[in-house]
Write a structure and sequence with these properties.
heterodimer, A: about 425 residues, alpha/beta, FAD/NAD(P)-binding domain, 3 domains, 7-stranded mixed beta sheet, 5-stranded parallel beta sheet, 12 helices, globular, B: about 80 residues, mainly beta, Ubiquitin-like (UB roll), 5-stranded mixed beta sheet, about 35% strand
Chain lengths: ~425, ~80
């Protein structure tokens, strides 16, 4: 027997929260779920030491106590079919049905291979920020932040707040590109203020342009990195390296539902109309999975989706605000475009598939993900190609193969509830 | 901050309530697991995507340590 809800929202970041708030205000009965133990998503992740950001805390107090809202933490979607989802939490599998579904599955980091990237001590940039907020010990540790985009500043600020000795921030974009972006910031005063506040918090920490981490060195843990910059190679001893090259939309659930996709460079995103409707009836999408747009965009789109899914009209200001923040994201993409050298960092023996230890040289000669997987096991591990498949797409090798159930590794007892999958490849 | 007592590979450890199992393991600086070729691995993406931090928690294998908050009495086994 499945529980039925008017609205089911997958993802509890800004988009999911705004959607829940709008739908609840319209009197809908809402279930909202997230794989994480606490709501807030990545950008508003609860800090074990400092709690939630104020705005998120205030909103969550309202949502978590709302009588018409069913909050389902540590819950993942395993399979989807029209108007029903198969879910799994820490204890059990459960199935829920809905009148409308709002996908707010957000984004993950673009993590790209380079020699040494599998060493303990190397993490994503947003990855280190998430770990710091979970209580990862950083006190007195030497940390280098690298990769691209404004996320590096936020990651550095969080690391510093948690006691890290941040040795520097290494941005791959050139000085001209970053300054060009800064000159456009006046059009988004909120963003300009945010950037200024971050730079203040990071006073005294070196910020280098045109610099790429080419190698991480250590035996069983990180000891040293090599950074290639405008003035040659710099060797830096450190215990943590946080390197992230931007964000990639989490579209796996939308793909499984059959939603039409568009493509931004190498990565798919969900196609939606002005009301955040996908190509599938009663399925809406909001936020990063509709193309990386940032927190403010996610919030606006979540609100629009929550209103549309409950049959309300969308006020015109919401629509032009969304256009304005989407323009910000376009400016970001333009100015923080990745240097092609980053695509060539991996050596022939650098592992591409971290789950199955498949090196780059084993993938020579394959031009599609499926044949590479069958021959080398690349993408067959627990992450289901989320890391290596996305990296190979970014590197221009081949696009990621489509998603089959289960969406995440699932318990056998859960899979007993999956209605006769036609192809069981990838089940374990 | 409240403390909880957990055990990692049988070693008792007092940690602040509310931190993740990954953050607890990192206090001991152990690898989380070994890759198929025997390389040491630790938490990487921090948000449940990469599965590098998977460990055994209270007898249940393949749990992502970055997604599970510590609980009093929890038994964690890394793949060492």
């Amino acid at each position: 027997m499945s529980e039925h809800y008017d609205i089911v929202i997958v993802g509890a970041g800004p988009a999911g929260m705004a959607a829940a708030e709008a739908a609840l205000a319209r009197g809908a009965r809402v279930a909202w779920l997230d794989a994480q133990a606490t709501a807030g998503g990545q950008v508003w992740r609860k800090d074990a030491k400092y709690g939630w950001p104020h705005r998120a805390e205030h909103m969550l107090a309202h949502l978590l106590n709302h009588p018409n809202a069913m909050w389902m933490p540590q819950t993942q979607v395993i399979a989807a079919e029209p108007n029903a989802l198969l879910l799994q939490n820490e204890r059990q599998a459960l199935s829920i049905t809905y009148s409308a579904l709002i996908l707010a599955t957000g984004a993950r980091e673009l993590l790209l291979p380079f020699p040494g990237w599998t060493l303990p001590g190397v993490t994503g940039a947003g990855g280190l920020q998430a770990l710091a907020k979970q209580g990862w010990p950083l006190g007195g540790r030497r940390v280098v932040i690298a990769g691209s985009g404004p996320l590096l500043l936020a990651a550095a600020a969080t690391a510093k707040r948690h006691g890290a000795h941040v040795l520097g921030i290494y941005e791959q974009a050139s000085k001209a590109a970053v300054h060009g972006f800064a000159r456009k910031l006046w059009r988004w005063p909120g963003k300009a203020l945010q950037a200024a506040a971050l730079r203040c918090q990071l006073a005294g920490i070196a910020y280098r342009y045109g610099s790429i981490v080419a190698r991480a060195v250590g035996s069983d843990a990180l000891q040293l990195i090599e950074v290639e910059g405008p003035h040659g190679i710099e060797r830096i001893e450190c215990e943590q390296l946080a390197v992230g090259y931007g964000l990639v939309p989490n579209v796996e659930l939308a793909q499984m539902l059959g939603c039409a996709m568009k493509q931004e460079a190498a990565h798919p995103y969900v196609s939606v109309d002005d009301s955040q409707r996908t190509s599938i009836a009663n399925v809406y999408a909001a936020g990063e999975l509709c193309g990386i747009g940032g927190r403010d965009c996610a919030w606006l789109e979540g609100r629009i989706a929550g209103l549309a899914a409950t049959g309300a009209g969308i006020e015109a200001p919401l629509l032009w605000q969304r256009r304005h923040v989407r323009n910000f994201a376009a400016a970001l993409r333009e100015h923080f475009k990745l240097d092609p050298g980053i695509h060539a960092l991996a050596d022939p023996d650098t592992l591409i598939c971290r789950c199955e230890d498949v090196p780059l040289q084993a993938l020579q000669g394959f031009d599609d993900a499926r044949s590479a997987k069958l021959a080398t096991r690349c993408g067959m591990g627990a992450c289901q190609g989320r890391i290596c498949g996305t990296a190979l797409a970014e590197l221009g090798r081949f696009p990621r193969s489509g998603q089959r159930p289960p969406l995440f590794p699932a318990r056998l007892s859960t899979l007993g509830d999956v209605p006769s999958p036609s192809d069981t490849e990838g089940l374990f | 901050m409240n403390q909880v007592r957990i055990a990692i590979n049988g070693q008792a450890l007092d940690v602040p309530a509310g931190i993740s199992v990954a953050a607890a393991i990192a206090r001991l600086q152990w690898p989380f697991r070994r890759s198929p070729r025997g390389q040491a691995r630790a938490a990487f993406c921090g948000m449940g995507v990469c599965f590098e931090c998977r460990v055994r928690i209270d007898g249940i294998a393949q749990q992502r340590a970055c997604m599970v908050p510590v609980r009093e009495g929890m038994q964690v086994m890394t793949d060492e």
